[in-house]
Structures are given as C-alpha cells and as structure tokens.
Fold this protein.
Amino acid sequence: MRIGLFAIAGAAPLDDLVAQVRLARDTGLDSVFFGHTASWDALMTAAVAGREVPGIEVGTAIVPTYPRHPLALASQALTAQAMTGGRFTLGIGPSHPQVIEGLHGIAYERPVRHVREYLSALRPLLRGEEVDHHGETLTAVGTLDAPGATPPPVIVSALGPAMLRAAGELADGTVTTWVGADTIADHIVPSITKAAEAAGRPAPRVLAGVIVALTNDPDGVRRDLADRFGPASDFPAYRAVLDRQGLTGVHETVIVGDEETVARHLRRFEDAGATDLLISPYGDPARLLKFAAALR
C-alpha cells in the first residue's frame, strides 16, 4: 500500500504548501494530494509543487466538477501533467449541494449522471481526441492540443453504489473520506472493482483518506474535530456513508491513539484492499509523516 499526504490547498502561504510536499518526499512518502477549498486552487498548487519538488506524485482530491467545464479542466490537467513530468493525478468529484448550490449558485442536479457525462467528455479530451458531447447535464465540443503531454490518471470521489459504478466503469479509481477500513473492505473495494471488471478496465486504485493523530488524549482530539468538521456530517453523501458505518459524525472516523494503536488501525486499510492511504495529520505533521513512512 502506498502512503501519501492529504493537504488542504489553503490556510497557509503557497511556499509553505510546497514545503509540505518537499517534507513528504524527503520523509519517504509516495504522494501528496491537495483538497480544494475557498483558497489556493488545488490543481495549480499541485502543479507548482510538483514542478518544484521532483520525485513524488502530486494530485487533487478533489476538484469540483460543476464549476469547471471539461474543456477548461482538461486544459489545466494537461498543463499540470506537463509541468510535473507526468507525476500528476487528477481527482474530481461533484462536491456537495451545500457547496455547489449554496456558494456557486449552480443547480446540483443528478450528480451521478453529471459525473458520467463529465468523464465521457473529459477522458477523450485528455487523450487529445475530438469531442462532440451533447448530454442531459452538459455540452462539450472541441479538442485540445497539448504537445508532449500525456493523459493523467483520473480518480473520482465516490462513496455510494451508483457513483462507485461510474468510477469503476469510466475512471482509474476512487478517493474516499470519512470511511473506515471495514467499509473499504466490504463496500468500496468490491463495488468499484466489480464495475471495473465488467467494463473490461484495469483494477482501480482505491485511495483512502483518513485523519490521523498521535496523542494520549483521543477524546479531546475527537471533540476538537467534531467542532471543526461537524457540519460535514450533514452533507448527504457523508451522512449516507456514516449511517452505513453506524457512526454519528465524521469525527468518529479519525485514527487516534498511541503509536501502536494507530499503526494497527492504519495497517487494516491495506488488509481491506486500499491501494493508497492518504494521511491528513492532526498535530505535528513531521512526526506523523515519519511515523507513516516507517509503516511502508
């Protein structure tokens, strides 16, 4: 199982984010994926960091699809792939109605259909092919010329059965959040793998995102995370996967405790079939990344 860092493209100067990627590489991790918030652009941050820090995969987890047309995103992704020398992975997803409708004023309609149509236009564009797509949720017509750029892998944020089928059939894998090892094993991996096999596609990557804390105060960490991320528990996609796990909130998915406890829980993700573990450190990131790298 590959181990990487999940970093938010915000709340820090851009140079500090590049320094996080350099720390992850020097520590021995495999990748750094940036989440997109109302701050630095995740894709551009990954591209800049990947160009400045060779020897490590960079990617997005994820870029919301509704606000970006496939032609625009394909152009950005090919540019990032060229800037990083082929070490970029594009993670996309529909995000949530609270974000797309509440912040952008865009109707959050038929997200699974939207993602299927988006991928149907995006993947050929990344390959330099002509696209003439007129769907129910979007239209994309044209082609892109990016000399020397190779198509980056595309992963999709998918938690529910229908989105996992779309990811398995049309993308290279999925990235999850607020999901424990048991649900990776009995829901995520079987669903996306079955869909990929039925479509004649290679085995998909399964990138499991998890918050990790080394601490002697697990309850205090959970209380703090409940205060910081509690509203996310009401996002429909997250609420559904939390209910599947019998959990009340996203704070209950954190991996927390002493080194022995945390190591035992993290290794369960490999046993569950995750190909990648993306760690979001709570506390001292340098200590956590060295600890995580040692697990490899």
Notes: DSSP finds eleven helices and twelve strands in the chain. The longest strand covers residues 205-214. The mean pLDDT is 96. The longest helix spans residues 181-198.
